[in-house]
Amino acid sequence: MLTILFDGVAYGMLLFILACGLTVTLGLMNFINLAHGAFAMAGGYVTVIMMNRYGISFYWCLPAAFLVSALIGLVLERTLYQWLYQAPHLDQVLFSIGIVFMAIAATDYFMGGQQQLINLPPELSGRMDVFGVGVGRYRLFTIVVCALLAVALQFILSKTRFGSRLRAAVDDRRVAMGLGINVPLVFALTFAFGSGLAGLGGAMGAEILGLDPNFPLKFMIYFLIVVSVGGTSTVSGPFLAALLLGIADVAGKYYVPAIGPFVIYALMIVMLIVRPNGLFARGGR
Amino acid sequence: MSDIVLETRNLKRYFGAFLATNDVSLKVERGARHALIGPNGAGKTTLINLLTGVLPPSEGQVFLEGEDITSMASFRRVKRGLTRTFQINQLFSEFTPLETVALAIAEREGVGHNLWRSIAGYGKVVDEAATLLARFGLASVMAERTVILPYGKQRLLEIALAFASKPRVLLLDEPAAGVPEDERHEVLSIVSDLPADVTVLLIEHDMDLVFSFANRISVLVAGALFTEGTVAEISADPRVKAVYLGENA
Amino acid sequence: MLKRRTLVAAAGAALGCLAAFPVAAQEVVKVGLILPMTGPFASTGRQVSAGAKTFIQTHGDTVAGKKIELIIRDDAGVADQTRRIAQELVVNDGAKVLAGFGLTPLAMSVAPVATQAKVPAIVMAAGTASITKASPFITRTSGTLPQYSLPVGTWAAQNGIKNVVTLVSDYGPGIDAEKWFTKEFKAKGGEVTEAVRVPLQNPDFAPFLQRVRDAKPDAVFVFLPSGVGSLFMKQFSERGLADAGIKLIATGDVTDDDILNSMGKPSIGTITGHFYATAHDSPENKAYVEAFKKANDNMRPNFMSVGGYDGMALIYAALEKTKGDASGPAFMEAVKGLSWTSPRGPVSIDPETRDIIQNIYMREVKEVNGELQNVEFQTFEALKDPEKAEAK
Amino acid sequence: MSAVQQETTVTANPTADAESRATRLMKRRSRVRFYEIVIWLAAIAAYFVLPSKMLILTEIAILALFAVSLDLVLGFAGIVSLGHTAFFGFGAYIAGLLALHFIAEPVIGLIVAGILSGVLGLLTSFLILRGSDLTRLMTTLGIGLMMAELANQMAWLTGGADGLSGFSLNPVLGLFEFDLFGKTGYLYCLAVLFIGTMIMRRIAFSPFGLSLKAIKGNPMRAAMIAVPARKRIVTAYTIAAVFAGMAGALLAQTTSFVSPDVLAFHRSADVLLVLVIGGTGYLYGGIFGAVLFTLVKDWLSVVTPQYWMFYIGLILVVLVLIGRDRLARWIEYLPERFSKSKEEGR
Q: Is the pLDDT of residue B138 over 90?
């Protein structure tokens, strides 16, 4: 049963990388960005194009996916998103649904509608036994990379100057400006960083979750669950929520396949009733 | 012996580590013209928010005519006659004054939940609203959108709204704040000719307004009750002046 | 309160322009082809419409003195769109025959229209058996799940496979495949130790494959819609089920010719049962594949395209039989008992059930001069749809 | 003399004159607007002028009823919902199952579907009382997805992914047979839309409707004039669920088929887009929005069958960037100035 737990952890880690970008945009910038999946998809397609068309090795694709998605994020943030920071949540939702629709149609137009497949480098595919437990090499790779990212993200947010300036900027925009923090720049970089993370998540997820133009809509619910259950004020919240969700989803499907999907939705609704602002939200009764 | 209509016992409220309301036990008698004064940031508005259920207290209790209303929802407190005005106008920008007051009266009369007859069909409610608005000099603007009314008129509407709920206990949070000079004593005259049995707790900075209106004064400093007494006692008390000038707060 | 005045004007004008569409009807038989050209099933729409067009290119667009006009409309895989387009094609455009229907709910939603308007509806893709029962005016040129799941059961029992775990997508066609494979396999002495069902919207096969691996069967029988099949294939090999000695047998949807090449090495050796493979060697198929590739920049025709191709063949054959009379009842009467040689092999329409009778081939994925192909190695002659045969 | 005295002397006997004027003002607020008459006449004219377009008109009428029901919750009470299609789909399945197993009389099916959807709305309403807009978005989205999953799992009842079919409807009220051209279907849906909108219109101008707008406008002030916010939101959400269920039932009855797609997420997104186009808070936004949305979508799907979704997304982005309220405010000044001059004129 350890393999199930292992798969659950790998899946949870992947969900975290995909969703943590949303935590950054949603929690720290108070912007409901349902289009987060579109940036993840962008990262995935960058990897597919680089690997299949130009034969670049998978390892180079990951940073490339991060940079390209971050760039797209930056461009969109500067042109469109920045006018909507003060907009009501409904407008933000509609705006991001619009972006998702456009992303899906554009990807369908350029890349075609079918499922994209990438062939992993040999050392990442196949399985091996670690202390007698069948472990997928790729899933192990996912866990390692995601863990590193989680630690890095936590470190950046809490220890570095950029992290503190970011949290200040979100806590109170006006006060932060008063302290001389260039808030628009901080927001732009944060949004780009969040989208980059999503792109990286998309690149790594292509292997396990599959990649087609409908990716953003199909996985939107998973991102939102992680963020709503994990809360948006910390990084550790979504990390634990993603793990919880990953294991619950995999175990649910293994042990009780018939009601598998219900497990996640029920978990989310119960969580939202009990703790409207997230399971691990800091303070605030 | 006039009975106590509004009472708090060891009311406390924390904002994180900051103690905004510090163990306040206040007693307000029926029909009183009780003023609550204190320097800026003394916690006056927080206290009002606790009394009217806008904020839940961290500790302590609130009693209205002997009934414990500590955790009662605001709208139920209004039904029991405890209502307030806001320091910063809280109005419906898209409504007209007529609609706003008519709705307040409809709720008071218990027809607010009726979803069939149009509100225009309640002649009695609409007429009462019009009369009340006329009394506040708002008849000419009663069909305008509240958001485009001048601040002074909005302030009058704020008070008219409190009147519309026919309160037995009215909490006035700096009613004259921001009202232009010529309309200031207009607000005073309306407040002063409130019926005798209505208890009024007035929060105000304007000392001559307080001294000409109140018959009992409580002084709040740093969230705690500093002192209480009649107008004469408080106006003569050196410590109150000092507190205001900030010598030995 | 958004632009109330302009909204009224815009709505009025828009309603007005609707009236402008002309309605033309003369000596032409219009065939309405309704397919999911967009959305998750766009590949089905593309293949079926290409197959139908290839037939018209190779057989001309007139038959029994009538000119065939093909109207292709997109329903994006949404049932009430399919229904509305079908009704509009019949009512406004005077379509005499409806065809296409990429999914079962799309076909089911048109059944009432076919019955009420007495317009034949030819199912070219959807696979659930019960569709032809929904209306006397429905016939089918693709195939039914039970029809090509049953022979896989027979083959498995005959080739020393003792116990099997079934793994299917949790929706109509999946349940059909599971039921008929299990029934046949048990009838032939085999044993199905477990029936795993995978949610339709399923991002990850890990838990299910793990369940299969733990059950340690001789083989796993799989049914998944074509797009998802490729993802399953990769994870099947990555999880090491192949080298744990578990054979992969499935219906042809999983090794769909449209994406077989992109599946790569993991798919080699997979045994599937289906009614058509691009590599099927018959003169008709060679001509068909060549014409199809020329017209569709070398795209490989799959079983969906042959459904479209044969759908047109059925229309032409029926019109010849009725000397051009395309009225519903006459057309359906002509369709019953029709038989012709399709690129897939000899086919005929069962007079009672109006469903297709065809050969089902067992095939194995092999590498044939640089390309992955489903190479046929065994044929089950002229199989009827078992579900309706049993229900009779 | 202060302004107050001066004011009272001018209107010598304030009670008599002010009252009649006040009641007149209140009545003026809920009078029938010009655009209302136009849209209903256009809808009836369409029956005669556009015989070949019955089906798309029926689709517009159904989408309009669905949008107006959401407007009651979104435009009036300010509750954001991404799962309103849960009631639409539920109503569709109830109507389908009723016709299949019990009675195929459309009107009874419609009413029962409405009531049961209302019950579902009541049961789930306590979920939307807590938390912020985001939590409401997430909870309603969750409910919608749960219902979709339920429909797929209970294949024995709902036909699962293949949909529910095999039922046909008796003539409406025993008189009007559902014809192939969709004529009866359109009139039936139009009648239900008209009745539904009139009912919701009355509710909108009732004290209850006003209190909903108060809750949306300023929740704290609403509480301070004794508006029981939670109770009112629950009632509004239930009423909206009734009409959304009826819209779903109409779709099931006019197409005599219920596909799992009735619970799909895109319907909830589409209806939000309809309200963005038509504007919220005056009910007719749902109708105008439905007309324009359906026609634009239909026109686009003919022009670019592959990629109409791109343009829908573009419209959505542009509309939000322009700012729905800026557009609305521009419109309001126009009639305001127009009506003010009329009033002074009297």
A: no
State the chains in contact with C (3 or more Cβ–Cβ pairs under 8 Å). A, D
pLDDT digits (tens, 9 = 90+) for C292-319: 888 888 888 888 899 999 999 998 888 8
Share of chain B above pLDDT 90, in %: 17
Sign of the dihedral defined by the CA atoms of residues B14, B15, B21, B22, in that order: positive
Q: A184 CB near a chain C CB, below 8 Å?
A: no
Check B107 against D211: CB less than 8 A apart. Answer: yes
The domain that holds B177 is classified in CATH as 3.40.50.300
Would you say residue C335 lies in a domain? yes
> CB of D302 within 8 Å of any CB in chain A?
no
Distance, CA of B186 to CA of B139 (rounded, Å): 16
Whether residue B183 lies inside any domain: the answer is: yes
Residue D337: pLDDT band by 50, 70, 90 thresholds? very low
CB atoms D137 and A266 under 8 Å: no
**For the ranges A226-235, D272-281, D337-346, which has the lowest average pLDDT?**
D337-346
Q: Is C198 helix (H, G, I), strand (E, B) or coil?
A: strand
Nearest-angstrom CA–CA distance, A9 and A240: 10
Q: Which domain holds residue C57?
A: 28-143+282-354
Q: Cβ separation of D19 and B142 shorter than 8 Å?
A: no
What are A12-46's pLDDT values in tens digits? 888 888 888 888 777 767 788 888 889 888 888 88
Cβ contacts from A onto C, under 8 A: 88
The secondary structure element, H or E, covering residue D184 is: helix D183-205
Residue window 114-153, chain A: list those with CB within 8 Å of chain C: 114-115, 117, 119, 125-127, 134, 136, 138-139
Q: Is residue B119 part of a domain?
A: no
User: In chain B, what residues touch D11 (CB-CB under 8 Å)?
Assistant: 134, 139
- C11's CB contacts (< 8 A; 6+ apart) are D39, D42, D288, D291, D292
ipTM of the assembly? 0.81
Helix (H) or strand (E) holding D10: helix D3-10
Query: Is residue B142 included in any domain, yes or no?
Result: no
Whole-number Cα distances in Å, B117 to B105, B125, D65: 16, 13, 22
Mark D101-117 as b/e (b = at least 16 C-beta within 10 Å): eeebbbeebbbbbbbbb
Name every chain D residue with its beta carbon within 8 A of the beta carbon of C116.
180
Beta bridge partners of C365: C374
Task: Name the helix (H) or strand (E) containing B134.
Answer: helix B123-135
Tell me whether strands B224-229 and B216-221 are parallel, antiparallel or unpaired. Answer: antiparallel
